[in-house]
Structures are given as C-alpha cells and as structure tokens.
Amino acid sequence: MRFLGLLLPLVLIMACSSDVSESLINDIKKEKFKVSSPDGKNQIIFNLEDGVPYYSVNRGEISILAKSRLGFELQDIPDLKDNFKIKSKSYNKHDETWTQVWGEKKNIRDHHNEMRITLQEKSDLERELVIVFRAFDDGIGYRYEFPEQENLQEFNIMDELTEFALTGDHTAWWIGAYQWNRYEYLTRTSPVSQIDTVITPLTMRTDDGLYLSFHEAALVDYSTMTLERVDGLKLYSNIQPWHDGVRVRTQAPSVTPWRTLQIAENPGDLITSYLILNLNESNKIEDTSWIEPAKYVGIWWEMHLDKSTWGSGDRHGATTENAKRYIDFAAKHGIPHVLVEGWNIGWDGEWYADGVVFSFTEAYPDFDLHGVAQYALDNGVRLMGHHETSASVEHYEAQMHDAFQLYEELGVRAVKSGYVGHGQEIFWTDEDGNRNFEWHHGQHMVNHHQRVVELAAQHKISLNVHEGVKDTGLRRTWPNLMTREVARGQEYNAWGWGEEGVWDGNSNPPNHVLLLPFTRNLAGPFDYTPGVVDLLFDEYRPDNRVNHTLAKELALYVVIYSPLHMAADLPQNYEARPDAFQFIKDVPVDWYDTKVLHASVGEYVTIVRKDRNSEDWYLGSITDEEPRSFSTNLEFLTEGVTYLAQIYRDSEDANWDTNPYGFVIEEIEVRAGDEFPLELAPGGGMAVRFTPID
Question: Using an 8 Å Cβ cutoff, are 451 and 495 in contact?
Fold first, then answer.
C-alpha cells in the first residue's frame, strides 16, 4: 500500500507532463531533495548518490555551488562519509523578529525554510548523521548534528569533508590562513584560481554580478574553519588542527558550527545581511542592564607612537598621574571608559616571548589600581580593564577568576584582552609535563574563549578581544562579547611605510578600510580604534602617518561598526582640534537601523545609521585613493520633518597624501527626498549628523 501511495501522485504528474515526471523519478532514484528561501530565489539541493551525501546551491537560474561533498573522516573508527541511506527527512518554516541587546540594527527578522536530513549507515553499526539546511533570502546555512546513539559516543574528527564547488573563477578578496601573524594582514584580490588556503569571511564577485561571502556561525566547542582550494575551483573545509593532527575532539550528542554562504546582488546587501546572527542561539544572559555600548579613550596610542612604554621606567605610560589625566579628559567630554594598558606586573623585557611573566591582579608601584578605579567612579567614568596574556592561556586561566573578581569589585564593566603571539604559540602542559603548542584558532582556543566570556558574564563584565578567535555571531548568545580585533587595526599606521614608500605589510594603505566592510566586518564588530586627528605624528614618528584625510577618520565611526568605539588619539590632539572632536563625541555606538547607499568593494562605501536612542541619523562615506562624487536621496529621513545636517567634509583641495587636514564644517537644512551631494577627496570622506529641528 505504501508503494501504491507513492506511485499514484507520480502517475497523475506523468499524465500532465512526461518531462516533469521523468525528473521526479530520477530525483527519487538519486534520493534528491531541496529547500528554497522564502522568496524562492535561493535553493539548496541535497542528494545521496551511491550512499555519498552531496549538496548544491542555486540562485534562480544561476548555479552558485555545483555538487559538493559532505561527511567526515574519523580517527580509529569507520568514517562517516558514505554507505548511507536516508532514514528520514522533514521540513520547517520559521519567521520571527527578535531584538538585539545592542547592535547595528535593533530588530532583526529571522525568516527561513529548513530541511533536516537524517542519514543512517547501511552497515551493522547503523550510526546516524543529521544534516540541517536553512535557506534565507540572503543566503544559506547548514550544519551537521551527531545524535545520541550507542555506536557513536566520544570520537575524534580527522577531517571534515565539506566542499564548496564553485561554478566560476570568481574575483576573491582574501587573507591567507596559517600565517604567523594570525589574521593581521592586508586583504589581497585575485581570481579564486590563485588562492591556496584562506581565512573566512571570504568574499567573492561572480561574472553574473552576484556577491558571495563564505563564513561560519555559532562556533562553539569546535575548530575554526579555513578554506583550502583543491581540485580546480573547489574549496574544501580545512579546520585548524590540534598539535597531534586531530581536527576536533567531540562526542555525541553534539553539533558543528553552521557553514554559511551569504548571497547578494550588490555588495552593500552583504553588509546588511544578518544571516550569521540568525544562525546563533538567542541571548543567554537574563539581566543585560549592565551591558552598555560606549566610547572609550585610553593609555594606548601613546605607546604605539613611542611617547611612552608599556613596561616600567622613566617613560612608563600607566602611571597614576597619567591615568587621572585621561580620566579628567573623559569626564569633561562625556566619554564613559578609560583604558589603561601596561598597569600590571610583567611588561618589562620580552613579555611577548612568554606570557607567564604577567600578573593580572598586581599593579606596578607607580600605578594605584584601587585609587585610579575609584577616582574614575567619582568622576562618572569607569576604568576599562586590560588583560594581555601573551598567548599563555594556561597561565591566564590560573588567575582569571581572581582577576575578574577584582575588576568587578573595582566597578570595571569592560575588559580588553590580548593574545599576542605567533600563529601557533598557544600552549598547554599535559600530564607528562610536555608543552603542546596549538593554533590561535583551533578548538583549544575556541573553548578557552568560551570559558572567558561565560566567566566575564558572571562578573558583569563585557569583552573586547584582541588577537582572538574570529567572530561567528556569538554576540547574540553572549551579548557581553561586544567587539574584537582579529584584523589589522589603526596601530599599523604608527609603524612605517616600508622601504622606499612601498606597502610592505607594515602600514595600512588608503583602501584598507574600504575592504574591511566587505570582508572582516561581515563577521561582526571590529575594534579598529579610529579617530586619530593628528595624522602625521610630527612630534613622535615623523616618518609615519595615517593615510586618510581628517574627514575620513571621522566617517569611520559610522562605516566600521563597534559597540565599544575608541577615540584613539591623545587628549591634547583632540583639544587642539575641538571641531573634529565634536563629531566623535556626538556619534552613537548603538543603532536602530543601518542602510548602505553606495558600495564598491575596496573603492568606496556610504553607510547611514539611525541612533537607537534618538531620531538622529548619521552618515559616513569614504573612498580609496580616487576622488568620488555622489548624489544620494535622503529618503531614509522621516517625511515632513526638517533636519539640520551638520557636515564634516573634505575641503576642495584636500588629499590624503598632500593635504590631509583640508577640512570644512558646515550646516544646512534638509528634508526627506532631498538630493544630497557627497564630494570625497582622494583618500577622503564625509561624516554627517542629521538632527530633527521641528
């Protein structure tokens, strides 16, 4: 009866169309199933051929991914890669709108269709593997699930066989993986056929004019995924191994991170895609009232300029006197946090060679930790903590409970952490006393960072993680995980041009921040530390500079999103340029909505964001070495309301190279629907605040 029930609809379809019936019959024979996005454009096709699982992805009539393999190779037990049959399949529709605790958009719609395929081995083991596919209007995601079962308990993954079979030699923007300086490299551009193994997000443009971004979501108790090009245009999931070659140590039940592909018809739509967040679990912190997006200043940039030092001595930056000077400045200008680096014992000598030297509770004699923290509170400011581990995670974990407890007692609400060290310098000691060196982004470190964020939440402390694991949307689940570095930030501008003015990896060219919104920033917030207004460093490093105009530095507060944004420059430089500093003080770090008005990867971008706590809108527009002229319609403003546009722009003769300080501030009245001109100098930008006045 079951066979007849299946045959009857097939006969009816055959009576209508022999072509359709033949296709359906072939699909059934191949065990081929599909799920489409709510708008019908993105389609995931799963099929089992001779017991081997594959998937492919289409957007309309365009093939995005050809037949791509799925599965695992395991250690000392049979692999989970073939000899499967389909045990069951199910479909589900989901549509909800959820609210971020903070973010670039307050209310996010999670609208997707899901297909679950349960595979079972044909062998006597009968082990099961579930693959869950989700199709969104802005892309797709899928992950593996290992159900609880008798014949699969603890096991080691030696290789994840996930493939992404590209259908063209697309233009790719990429950074190589497994490098000594982790992710802190300039982005390169080439056809896919010229890449080897790269980090994610990996962004591409196809000949069909589509934009793709490959990444992962919800990275928990697993190893970070890189993408290795093999077999022509096929990308392979190369997950970072442990010291002994094992990729992941796990057990059933468990799940992998989501493998994600965002798909857009223009690059700006990648920026406003929230697929990564939608694939993470909802917030696990019940009381979030202590998590506050904010700006900060601090004792940091002066060390990069070599004005002072992290280590103790005559030029020690983290003194009580200097910290109070920064606190006074922050209090005067309404900046909530003051970061102090170099306050704790351990910075003398080659601290980066072995972080076992650090104490996370004991201050240098010239820094009164308790007194400075109280002085900050008395002036309506909070001290921002700092934990540099120098990649000695074992040493840090032995102290971090006491360190976070101390900070909580001092009223600290945010901590910047650091993991300076070469790519494979994380180490731990086994039972035999051997040091085992691990990659910064392997499972060992993923689990460490998870322990840190959960401990920090217990002490009501938010995190700003440097040299850590890339963002995969966990900020939704743990909103105290506020921002990260994991890329080249502002500090590279303090270290030199390289030989004969050639970009040699030691400084950021003018287009660096034009690549970030379409690559690194797609993963999540970035603590780039913008806002340097003394662009040429004449007093400290006259051979170095920031390769932007002054207006471009201001626009970065809108273009590069971070809920903790630093005003990176020295207090005296802001006091010398109060006109530019005014925008830095005014611009929010928490948004109700975000829109992209103009976008071209590596060339230009214009972003507008609406303040979550007022009716103000802010605009940031930046360009590479080329000047740009745009006209944008102010249709995002509220109809019938007049706004005062406070404009911070390049002067007519501004140029990042020859006249970076060419700068004009002006005010005009505008309304929704007005055409608004944007004139950007070479390497320049524009920042605008739109405030309702009636």
Answer: no
Query: From the DSSP assignment, how many helices (H) and strands (E) are in the chain?
Result: 13, 38
pLDDT at 509 over 90: yes
Residue 356: DSSP 8-state: G
Percent of the chain with pLDDT over 90: 88
Laid out side by side, the sheet with 642-650 consists of: 591-600, 604-611, 617-623, 685-692, 642-650, 663-671
- The model's confidence at residue 180, banded by pLDDT at 50, 70 and 90, is confident
- Residue whose entry in the numeric block shows the structure tokens 């365009």: 62
- Picking from 164, 132, 157, 169, the residue whose alpha carbon sits closest to that of residue 147 is 132
Fold of the domain spanning 283-486:
TIM Barrel (3.20.20)
Whether the per-residue pLDDT at 201 is higher than 90: the answer is: yes
- pTM for this entry: 0.94
The answer to whether 491 is a known catalytic residue is yes
Residue 88 CA to residue 533 CA, distance in Å, equals 61
Residue 24: CB atoms within 10 A of its CB come to 16
Give me the residues paired with residue 84 across strands. Answer: 121
Q: 581 near 286, Cβ under 8 Å? A: no
Residue ranges, CATH 3.20.20.70, the chain:
283-486, 513-694
Given this model, what pLDDT does residue 10 score? 38
Please name the fold of domain 31-278. Answer: Beta-galactosidase; Chain A, domain 5 (2.70.98)
Q: Give the pLDDT band (50/70/90) at residue 662.
A: very high
DSSP state letters, 482-519: EEE--S--GGGGGS---GGG---SSS--TTHHHHGGGT
* Stretch(es) of the chain classified as CATH 2.70.98.10: 31-278
Mean pLDDT of all residues belonging to the chain: 93
- Please identify which of the residues 121, 425, 491, 679 carries the catalytic annotation: 491
Fold of 513-694: TIM Barrel (3.20.20)
Q: Picking from 18-32, 361-375, 522-536, which range would have the lowest pLDDT averaged per residue? A: 18-32
515 and 173 in contact (C-beta within 8 Å)? yes
CB contact at 8 A, 200 and 234: no
